[in-house]
Amino acid sequence: MRIAWLASFVHKWLALIIGVQIFIWIATGLFFTVVPIEQVRSEHRIREAAPLHLSVADLATFSSALAGAEAPIRLTVENRPEGARIVADYADGSAALFDARTGAKLSPLDAESALTIARSRIITEAPVASSELITTASPEYRGALPAWRIAFDEPSKLAVYVGANNGQVTARRSELWRGYDFLWALHIMDYRDHENFNHAPIIIVSILAFLSTIAGIALIPYRFRWRRKKPAA
Description:
The protein has six helices and seven strands, in the order αααβββαββββαα. It is α+β, with helices and mostly antiparallel strands. The strands form two sheets. It has a four-stranded antiparallel β-sheet with strand order 4-5-6-7. A three-stranded antiparallel β-sheet has the order 1-2-3, covered by helices on one side. The radius of gyration is 28 Å and the shape is elongated. The model has no long low-confidence stretch (mean pLDDT 86).
């Protein structure tokens, strides 16, 4: 009976201490499984681009435009509604955007160019609520910097991030995404950066939850009473 008392004591008090976090784990986990991640990322609002067709002459023009400049470590050819583009990535982590047919350098982009790219890649007719150049990372955005944050005046509060140097749509953030991110922060108990789940608080709470579960299992033989069947008359 001493084992039963100890198991009951451990199970009860640990459940009281970490019960709120266990409830948060269950509730947020349910939300994550019910809501499709494609909707969270606004992937259903992406405009598809047509196939790309570039001639050898086009690439030759681009190569001559780069003559004498720092050689990139990677070139990415992309077809965009505004025309064929080449993104050059350099060894120092920077990037540049070029017109694939003329070789003209297009970056860094201004607000108007970023808005044109955002509208060409995202399905929306809503007016622009704000346009801001982002130079530091935040829980909402950790992509390429600097980047233009184009916010649209619509119920979902959609914000599209466009890299100022690569001209790519690097993120899409809606109210659904922000709610998801908030619940994710609660789930992993990282209330500042919303991405670290290898820190001491969550490890401690996980250990306590494990001990509480073991104590609850140990109580089963003592809590569960089998009724003996009466012999037939």
